[in-house]
């Protein structure tokens, strides 16, 4: 089974949100480090890598704005696929499903931001399309809410997503060449 790595919204904005009065991203250094290792392993196995970029029509998250760009440590290579989305669902009104099909992808390893929004929605949609989904549990993150810590939110969503994906640490993800 051919797997692809799907990296959701690893853009500058969530990593600097705290600098603009927002809350800090939970375990951001671990998120970057583990995602970078996943990327390296996917490349070694020659698995395709898809980057999804949350985009708005205007403002700091519009195309090519500094806060819209993917953070440098996990930046895409020229051969990687870039998917621009305007919704929480990485498949909605994008070419993602078509590109995955055209590349013979049957399995997805998903990681990124935010566990409780775009990651959650994309895992469920990928499952509904029939992909075998793996969620790299130490490669998703979010922010504290007013009611719950980011850790509680992540743990809760990972528990719920077990119905749609295998939840495993990135060290256990295997890409086959």
From TrEMBL:
Entry keyword annotation includes Coiled coil: no
Name of the protein this chain belongs to: Nicotinamidase-related amidase
Listed PANTHER family: ISOCHORISMATASE (PTHR43540:SF14), PEROXYUREIDOACRYLATE/UREIDOACRYLATE AMIDOHYDROLASE-RELATED (PTHR43540)
The family this protein is said to belong to: Belongs to the isochorismatase family.
Keyword Hydrolase belongs to the record: yes
GO molecular function: hydrolase activity
Keyword vocabulary terms for this entry: Hydrolase
Domain Isochorismatase-like: 4-147
Top-rank taxon, per record: Bacteria
Pfam family, one: Isochorismatase
Entry's transmembrane regions: none
Organism this protein belongs to: Gracilibacillus ureilyticus
């Amino acid at each position: 089974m051919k797997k692809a790595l799907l990296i959701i919204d690893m853009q500058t904005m969530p990593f600097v949100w705290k600098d603009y009065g927002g809350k800090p991203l939970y375990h951001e250094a671990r998120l970057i480090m583990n995602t970078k290792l996943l990327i390296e392993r996917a490349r070694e196995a020659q698995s395709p890598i898809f980057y999804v970029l949350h985009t708005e029509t205007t403002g700091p998250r519009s195309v090519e704005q500094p806060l819209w760009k993917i953070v440098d440590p996990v930046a895409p290579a020229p051969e990687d696929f870039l998917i621009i989305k305007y919704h929480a669902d990485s498949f909605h009104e994008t070419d993602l499903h078509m590109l995955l099909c055209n590349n013979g992808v049957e399995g997805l390893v998903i990681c990124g931001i935010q566990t409780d929004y775009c990651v959650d929605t994309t895992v469920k949609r990928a499952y509904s399309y029939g992909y075998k989904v793996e969620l790299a549990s130490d490669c998703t993150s979010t922010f504290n809410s007013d009611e719950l810590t980011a850790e509680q939110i992540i743990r809760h969503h990972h528990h719920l997503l077990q119905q749609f994906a295998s939840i495993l640490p990135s060290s256990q993800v295997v890409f086959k060449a």
